[in-house]
Amino acid sequence: MIGWWIAGGVVLLIAPFAYVALRRMFRDITTERALELFHLQREMLEAKFLELGRSLDHPKGLVWADGDFEGEARFARHRRTGELVAFVDATIYFALPESAPSDPQQPVGSRRQSTAIFLYKHGHWGTLGRSLFDMTPEEALEQYRADYEPILATEQHV
Fold first, then answer.
1. Cα atoms in the 13 Å half-sphere on the side-chain side of 23
2. How far apart are CA 82 and CA 28, in angstroms?
3. Residues of 51-77 as b/e, b for ≥16 C-beta within 10 angstroms?
4. Sign of CA dihedral 49, 55, 57, 58
5. Which of 57, 97, 109, 144 is the most exposed place for a label (fewest CB within 10 A)?
6. What is the average pLDDT value for the chain, to the nearest integer?
7. Phi, psi of 72 (to 5 degrees)
8. What is the DSSP string of the chain?
9. CA 78 to CA 146: how far, in whole Å?
10. How far is it, in rounded angstroms, from Cα 21 to Cα 26?
11. Comparing C-alpha atoms, which of 57, 125, 58, 136 is closest to residue 91?
C-alpha cells in the first residue's frame, strides 16, 4: 500500500516537469513548421502585403506603386502571447494617384526603406499590409525587444 503512495508522489513531482518539457517540444515543432510554411508561402504573402498596403491611407496622398523584398526574414516570438512574427526588408515605391494634379514640388517615384510585418496566427501566416518605415528588420527587433524575442538564426534555417 505504501508503495502506491510513493509512486503517486513521484508522479505528482514529475508531472509538472514533464508538462513543461512536452509543451516546449510542441512549441519547437510548431515553430519549425511555421518557419517552413513562411518560406513556402513567402511569394504569396509578399503579394498580399502589397495588395493590402495599397489600400491603406498614406501620407501626402501618395499611393504604393510597388515594392521589392530583399534578404532573409527575421523571425521573433511575442513575449506575452507567444505568437510568431516575421520581419522582411522591403523597399516601397510611392507615386501620385492618377487623379492628382501634377505638383512640381512633390517627389514622384519616391521610395522608402521599410520592414514588412507578417503574422502567424492559428496555424496560418498572414499580413495586414503594415510596415515599419525607415527601419530594417534588425532595427525593428531592437526597437521592440521588450515585446518580441528574436528566434535565433540557427533556428531560422529550415
1. 7
2. 12
3. eebeeeeeeeebbbbebebeeebbbbb
4. positive
5. 57
6. 80
7. -80, 150
8. -HHHHHHHHHHHHHHHHHHHHHHHHHHHHHHHHHHHHHHHHHHHHHHHHHHHHHHS--GGG-EEEEEEEEEEEEEEEETTT--EEEEEEEEEEEE--TTSPP-TTSPTT-EEEEEEEEEEETTEEE--S-EEET--HHHHHHHTTTTEEEPPHHHH--
9. 9
10. 9
11. 136
DSSP secondary structure code for residue 60 in this structure:
G
Share of the chain above pLDDT 70, in %: 68
In this structure, how many other beta carbons lie within 10 angstroms of the beta carbon of residue 155? 13
All three cell numbers of 102: 501634377
Of 57-71, 89-103, 122-136, highest mean pLDDT: 122-136
**What distance, in Å, lies between the first and last C-alpha atoms of the chain?**
51
C-alpha cell at 69: 523584398
- 117: amino acid identity, one letter: I
